[in-house]
Design goal:
The protein is of the alpha+beta class and 210 residues long. The protein is built from 3 helices and 13 strands. Helix 1 crosses helix 3.
Length: 210
């Protein structure tokens, strides 16, 4: 089987994805199994060929500062397993959204932004933050390897933190602005890295929309 053919069928189908999307206005974030061992292996192999840079250790100012302890790569080639996975997930979202009435999104949506992040064991992770407001509709994170705590919370202090399952092969979904008319974004963070972690963020950045 080719490295891209393994994404022709996800472990959670369009109905499970639709149910997860429908739960987001109340839950802020949900997770579900997505990838089998072959798909994970293909993505890890692809991720190892990328060039990484250290993430900016601090972004924002004052009480909006966010600390990051990871490496990132945004230069994902369009002919590998990562791009194939993004295209397959985008198609799965299209099918899932079509099952929901009323339509959850009133603006366009397409996975057009990929970022791969690597965290060492014992990493400080990323402190509570909200994704950029330009990331619309659905925010997706797929864990490829490693174990940590992925959590949503009430504010930048991490109050009322709720862990969301994110083992290897699982998809974490969060709501972005525009989903079911919501304009707010959930605070979330990652910490407690038991082992080195690799994850892939897949989002719709309306700044990149043609």
């Amino acid at each position: 089987m080719s490295r891209t053919a393994v994404f022709e069928r996800f472990q959670s189908g369009r109905r499970a994805l639709a149910e997860a999307i429908a739960a987001l206005p109340q839950a802020d974030a949900v997770s579900l199994p997505l990838l089998g061992p072959e798909a994970i292996e293909a993505l890890i192999a692809d991720s190892q060929s990328l060039r990484y840079r250290p993430a900016r250790p601090v972004i924002g100012e004052g009480d909006k500062r966010v600390w990051q302890d990871c490496e990132v790569s945004c230069a994902v080639p369009d002919d590998g397993a990562l791009a194939a996975c993004a295209a397959a997930l985008d198609a799965a979202f299209t099918d899932a959204l079509a099952l929901l009435t009323p339509p959850p999104l009133t603006e366009g949506f397409a996975v057009n932004d990929l970022i791969v992040q690597r965290y060492p064991k014992g990493s400080g992770g990323i402190t509570p933050h909200r994704d950029h407001i330009a990331y619309r509709g659905l925010i997706s994170v797929i864990t490829l390897s490693g174990r940590c705590r992925f959590a949503v919370c009430r504010d930048r202090s991490g109050a009322e933190a709720r862990a969301v399952a994110a083992p290897p092969g699982w998809l974490v979904l969060m709501r972005g602005p525009g989903l079911y008319g919501r304009t707010d974004r959930p605070f979330h963070f990652v910490d407690r890295f038991e082992t080195p972690r690799v994850s892939v963020g897949l989002r719709y950045d309306r700044r990149l929309a043609v």
